[in-house]
Amino acid sequence: MEDLFRFSDEFGPARIIHIHYPSVALKAIVVVDNTACGAAVGGVRMAPDVSAEECFRLARAMTWKNAAAGLPHGGGKSVIFGDPRMAAAVKEQLVRAFADAIGDITDYVPGPDMGTDERCMAWIKEETGRAVGLPSAVGGIPLDEIGATGFGLAACVDVAREFIGLDLKGARVALQGFGAVGKHAARFLAEKGCVLVAASDTSGTLAAPSGLDVGALIALKEAGRPLREHGSGTRLPVDAILDVDCDIWIPAARPDVVRADNVSRLRARLMPQGANIPCTPEAEQVLHERGVLVVPDFIANAGGVICASMEYRGGTQRAAFEYIDERVRANTRAVLQESQRDKTLPRAAALKLAERRVRTAMQMRRWR
Ligand code: NAD
After folding, report:
1. Is 346:339 a contact under the CB 8 Å cutoff?
2. Residue 273 CB: number of other CB atoms within 10 A?
3. First vs last C-alpha separation in the chain
4. In this structure, how many other beta carbons lie within 10 angstroms of the beta carbon of residue 258?
5. Hey, which of 21, 93, 189, 229 has its CA 20 to 30 A from 153?
C-alpha cells in the first residue's frame, strides 16, 4: 500500500493506471499527475526499460511545463513497454490496443515522445478521439518539422543573453544532439548571428572554431546520414562535445548527460536546456556556483507542447509561433529575474512560478 503511494504529494499523481492486454502482449502505464489546469497532456514513450517511477517523473515535469507555459492543461505521461523498432504491423496493433485501453481516461491527451511519432498519434486519435502531435494530413501542426522547440530555444537565448551581457552576433554555440530540437535551434540561432562551432550526434562530434555550415548539416541529417559524414570540421568522439570552448552549450539529446563527474569539462556561459533533465541536480548546482546561466528544461523547451496545445484547440501554425515567442520570452525573463533577486537556482525560481499557478487552479477545484 505505502509503496504504491511513494510518489504522492500535495500535487498528485491523481491516478496511476497499469494496463495489461495479454493477447497482444501490451503492458503499459499511464500517470495522470495533476489536472487542476485542464486535461493532462503528455507524451507516450515506447521503450523496453521504462519504469513507473520514470513515468511519474515525466508526468510531473509535464505538470510544471504546461502550467509555466500558461496552457489550459495538466500534466500526464504514459509508457508502453516494448522495442520501438518492432515490425510496423505489430507496433500498430500494440498502439491501437493501448488506445483502446485509455479510451475512458478522458482527462489524458496523448502526444508523441521517444519511440512514438505522429503516425502513432493518428492511430490513437482514430481509436479515442484524442491525441496531439498529429500528421498535417489529419489536421496536425507538424511541430518537429517546423522546429517549434528549436524556435522557442532561440527566443529563450535571446532573453537570457541580456543577463550575462552576451552579444549574439558571433556568439559561439555548441549543440549536443542534432535531431528535431538541435537542428532547428541551430538554424534559428544562426539567423540571430550565432556561429555553430560544434555539433554532435550518436556518430560523434564535429567541430570547427570558425563555424560549421548549419544548412549543409541539416541537409545531411535529413538525408538520413550521420554528422561524421560531413566533409568539413574536425571529427572527435561523441563526448568531446563537452569540452568545446563556446559561449552557449545546448543539450538536445539524452537525460543526465551532465553530471558531477563531468561538469568541470563544460566551458560555456549559458545553457538553455533543450533536452529534458539533461543535468543532474548536483551538476546544475555546480554550474550555478560557477556563474553559468542555466535556463531549465521546462521553461526553455516548452515550444513543442505549446504548439501541440495550439493544435488541440484548433489554432494555426502562425498563432503557435507567436505564442511560443511571447511565452518563452516572458517566462525566461521572469525566472531569471527572480533567480537573480532571490539568489536561487533558476530551476527553483521556475518551480515557484509553475507551482503558484497549479496551486491557484487547485483552489478552484472541489477535489484537490
Ligand atoms: P531526436 O531523436 O529527433 O534527436 C536526438 C538527437 O540526439 C539525434 O541527433 C541523436 O543522434 C542525438 N543523440 C542521441 N544520443 C546522443 C549522445 N549520447 N550524444 C550526442 N548526440 C546524441 O530527438 P528530439 O525530438 O530532438 O529530442 C531531443 C531531446 O529534447 C529529448 O530529451 C526530448 O525529450 C527533448 N524535447 C524534445 C521536444 C520536441 O519538440 N521534439 C520538446 C521538448 C523536449
Report:
1. yes
2. 25
3. 21
4. 25
5. 229
125, 156, 199: which is closest to 300 by C-alpha? 156
Q: Identify whether the C-beta of residue 200 lies closer than 8 Å to the C-beta of residue 206.
A: yes
C-alpha distances in angstroms, 132 versus 105, 121, 190, 344?
A: 15, 7, 29, 35
Neighbours of 338 (CB within 10 A): 16
The residue from 65, 77, 125, 221 that is catalytic is 77
CB 178 near ligand 1, within 6 Å: yes
**Cα torsion angle, 305, 310, 316, 322, sign:** negative
Is 181 a pocket residue for ligand 1 (Cβ < 6 Å)? yes
Cell digits for 234? 574536425
Q: For ligand 1, atom 25, which residue shows the shortest CA distance?
A: 180
Torsion of CA 193, 177, 110, 42, to 10 degrees: -80
DSSP letter string, 145-212: HHTHHHHHHHHHHHHHHHHHT--STT-EEEEE--SHHHHHHHHHHHHTT-EEEEEEETTEEEE-TT--
| Residue 100 DSSP class | H
| pLDDT value at residue 107 | 96
The residue whose grid cell reads 541537409 is 219
The one-character DSSP state at 7 is: T
Residues 6+ positions from 277 with CB-CB distance below 8 Å: 57, 61, 255, 256, 297
Cβ(273) – ligand 1 distance below 6 Å: no
Closest ligand 1 atom to residue 221 Cα is 9
> Which residues have CB under 8 Å from 329's CB, separation 6+?
155, 156, 158, 159
Contact assessment for residue 354 and residue 68, using Cβ atoms and an 8 Å cutoff: yes
Length reported for the chain: 368
* Mean pLDDT (whole number) for 169-191: 97
Residue type, 284: E
Cα 107 to Cα 15: distance, rounded to the nearest angstrom: 11
* Whether this model's pTM surpasses 0.85: yes
- Residues 46-79: tens digit of each pLDDT: 999 888 988 998 999 999 999 999 999 999 999 9
For residue 96, pLDDT over 90 is answered with yes
Cβ neighbours of residue 230 closer than 8 Å, sequence gap 6 or more: 206, 212, 216, 217, 220
Name the E strands within 84-164: 108-112
